[in-house]
Amino acid sequence: MKGWREASGSRQSSDSVSSGTPLVIDRNLSSSTIRLGRVQPQAPGHRTVFCNDREANQLAKYKGNSVSTTKYNVATFLPKGLYEQFRRVANLYFLTISCLSFTPVSPVSPITNVIPLSLVLFVSLVKEAFEDWKRLQNDMTINNSSVEVLQDQRWEATPWKKLQVGDIVRVRQDTFFPADLLLLASTNPDGICYTETANLDGETNLKIRKALEKTWDYVTPEKASEFKGEIHCEQPNNSLYTFTGNLLLQKQTIPIGPNQILLRGCSLRNTEYIVGTLIFTGHETKVMMNAMNVPSKRSTLERKLDKVIATLFGVLLCLCLIGAIGSAVFVNNKYHYLMLWVNGDSQQFNPSNRFVVFILSIFTLITLYSPIIPISLYVSIEMIKFIQSTKFINNDLRMYHSETNTPALARTSNLNEELGQVEYIFSDKTGTLTRNLMEFFKCSIAGVTYGSGITEIEMGAARRNGVNVKEVQKPAHTSREKGFNFDDARLMLGSWRNEPNPEMCKEFFRCLAICHTVLPEGEESPEKLRYQAASPDEAALVTAAKNFGFFFYRRTPTMIHVRESHIQKMGTVEDCKYEILNILEFNSTRKRQSVVCRYGDGRLVLYCKGADNVIYERLSSGNDELKKVTREHLEQYGEAGLRTLCLAYKDLNPDMYENWNEKFIQSKSALRDRERKLDEVAELIENDLTLIGCTAIEDKLQEGVPACIETLAKAGIKIWVLTGDKLETAINIAYACKLINNNMKQFVISSETDSIRDVENRGDQVEIAQFISDTVKNELRKCHEEAQAIIHSSSGQKLSLLIDGKCLMYALDPSMRSTLLSLSLSCTSVVCCRVSPLQKAQVTRLVRKGANKITLSIGDGANDVGMIQAAHVGVGISGLEGMQAVMASDFAIAQFRFLTDLLLVHGRWSYLRLCKVVSYFFYKNLTFTLTQFWYTFQTGYSGQRFYDDWFQSLYNVIFTALPVIIVGLLDKDVSALLSKKYPQLYKEGIKNTYFNWKVVGTLACFSVYQSVIVYNFAVASSTTGLTSAGKMLGLWDISSTAFTCLVITVNLRLLMMCNTVTRWHSISVGGSILAWFAFIFIYSIVFVNKGTYFTIYVLMSTAYFYLVTILVPIVALMGDFLYLGIQRWFYPYDYQIVQEIHRHEPESIGAGLLEVGNQLTPEEERRYAFALLPREKSKHTGFAFDSPGYESFFATQQGVTVHQKAWDVIRRASMKPKR
After folding, report:
1. Does the annotation count 864 as an active-site position?
2. β-strands 855-859, 424-427 pairing
3. pLDDT digits over 163-175, tens only?
4. How far does the chain reach from its first CA to its final CA, in angstroms?
């Protein structure tokens, strides 16, 4: 290939360019760039690619095909990694303290602060390095993958990273495309190939791509080497489903669209190989353009934690100010024997300059009191969250869906506790509340309705009205194909020929069989052929056509083959070919799809299917009765919870079609605004349509949805449904889900009113907008006033709001937004129908920011991504609409009903555990710092340290680190079954009961009390404590004793905070206390140059030491013990009441686990077996020391009989209901 060898040397640097800033120089382009997130397309102009000519493309300096997804490299790891760590305020604070500890004013050794900070940074950087190393390995694997490139008229295996724009490659079956390619030729007939886009959007159904007819012959290397085309196309962008470009070949301009583009990351299927030319490479490919990080989310607890740390810093400053003022006052020349000012060497205690003393004392005390802010807090929380998500949520068999072999997946560990505080859930309907398994159920043709089945929604509505409806049982021998649940003999087996309008029936069936983009796969027989469809709806419609006798069995780029039965007469079968001239594709703006086809006899027909409101706007005048009857049928189907589509057709005049087709080709060739121009051209032909009828497809509710919604409602969670369906369908689905009921006051704001329709019929867009705006404003005001009246009345009636997308568009206007928000928050449930993806995100953002409530969005499709990312927590359902929602989510589950376990069990446990972890860190560090603070008053406010440097360094890192992590992982107030049995327990998380200023203030009071007890007992008793040699105890003896009491006290206090105490709790607490003794035994004899030499051995030779270490923790914890006892007896939390109710019931081990049987992999079977093993029994579920009458909740499991106390019998009797 020309230019290959000459260019190879000068292009070696292209690999390195891929990680830099995009720099592309094209002809007729400006060098300026427009920044769109991480995407940097060139503007203005287009890209020019010379195919099979490296030398010509050399001038443009296109990016190489090497990609890098790593965050760091060898040179940037340390500086960038440290920068990331010091962006955290706490780490920056400790860096400052560490720097201060190197100055002369510091009373502590630098190691006191440097070692803990270094340890924290080391752990964090190792974690970052490990994650980046995994990314690097993945990049190397991808970049070194091999593909065949055309060189000198032969195919040569070449690594992906050496590919360049314009190269011609051959990709074989079941391999991935190395870059974004223009499809030139394929081994399949007519230049088509099949691709799977699962890596791109999660969809496993195959997509068809077709090469341009002019390039079909470039299959062999000899022929491909002759290809010398020039491509003019759009600049690199992140739009996966669009492409605009032209191919200049042999002086002809041929339009290129998405159907000719093969995207990097997709794989080739059912095709031996294809030949293509590279258009976008490396980081300019569409998949890499889409590799953006999901918006960073921080939990509410983390944000409140920042406030607590800021408060701690305020307390630190107050302590420093008190000490600094005391120091400035204390220094005086009368204390000459202290030698405060000797030879002018230091200004720190100069009596003649008290202001300098004050300033220097502040810096001294800041370093002394710095442990008040826990350095290991963030690392501990991250570790706990990570284990919670990877070991608990991901491995929970209660959230495992055996049918699809799909477990729950926590895609982030930052939001575990946020799951325990959700107040509003925003849910999609299709595929989220429903199964997304579409079944053709009913239809209306020429004003006659067909289908006799009864939907779940209809049965639910009948039951609400007191009518007992039994589902008709079909005969056992009756077999229905998946996607077809139609029951009406009038249309089956050719009986439609006897209907009043058989010609319209024929048009209806042909529209179903022709107007689609479905791909047939397998043998061309009705029993063995499978349909690959972009959506379950399309597959259901084509399956229905097959069952009616119009069997679509083959597709080429220009032809559809349909085997039609009973056309001429009963029993006849005829293979028909329909030439597909144009496809006007469906999108969320058009809400319709059209196909222009030519019959074998030359008839030109446009078939169109789409949403009823879109089709009705484009119908020809006349046939009013048919339109009216069909609209009534649509409303009936909607009330039955069915998804509806309208079908229409139009016979085309050949001359008119030729004129229109020229405009269509011009629009298709446009490089700018191609989509808009195609939509405008489509409007020219999609008019004066003749209505055929409508289809009704049933999408059944997922298993357990009504029960799940009812449980979540009892938990205080308000659920909103945001759907694109019609109002009637949405209402009935809401009834079936138990989201709304007849006892609720329902506010309905709809644009489907007679007055609005009259204005719309006049066609004045300004008048329509003004009228709807005024109507919505008045309705909102009226509903809001009525809602407030009901709320303030004593009726206690619940409210619900139902609003459609058109009205919502006006209600979201800034002038009405506050009224809409106030009305919505007053309602127990809200249903928004006919809403766009943007409106879903807007509504979610409105509640999140306007009401300042914790929100959760759940959906399963690409149209739910905006909503999922707008909420505090995003949950994706891995359903049948691809994995776009899952890839944008924070958590992924297979079924809506699993929300119960995710929120009420894991969410509540995580919230409860992390609240205890944060509270305990605050408590233990404040207690430690206050003991040092009390010592300041006896040292002339000089900043003398009370504890040894190593004591202070290892207090957070070793002596109190492990127990709090165990609590964060294993603490459990009630079992999973009781969490779901009593969903009201969840309300404590919504109210943030366990982490508020009251909780923090209470712990601060106990910290003050315990620090006073520990310090004063240790110091006061030192005057009478004597060593075995008869000497008085010194500073290091007293401080070691006080530190021993402190370690024992704070560790035992943690046990008092626990609801469950397992052997892991006991091991961690006992191990932490033993670690202190092991350390001091070694430390006292190793560091001989310190005052701590042999300290512990001297202390342990005295009775005083044993007496103090036993009595001080008991006295210090007595206040906590009494407070917790009084609180539990007289002011119990809800979970404590539940504990009392079920105190004698053994926890069901393995309850709720799914019977997954042989569908599990060996690893899953092992996990399942482990889940069934007897677990660690809790030794108690109250607080650490059993108060009188507080039996162990699990005593009966252990076979231990607890004797009744007199006061306990009286208390129990007082709790019995009076008769």
Report:
1. no
2. parallel
3. 999 999 999 998 9
4. 99
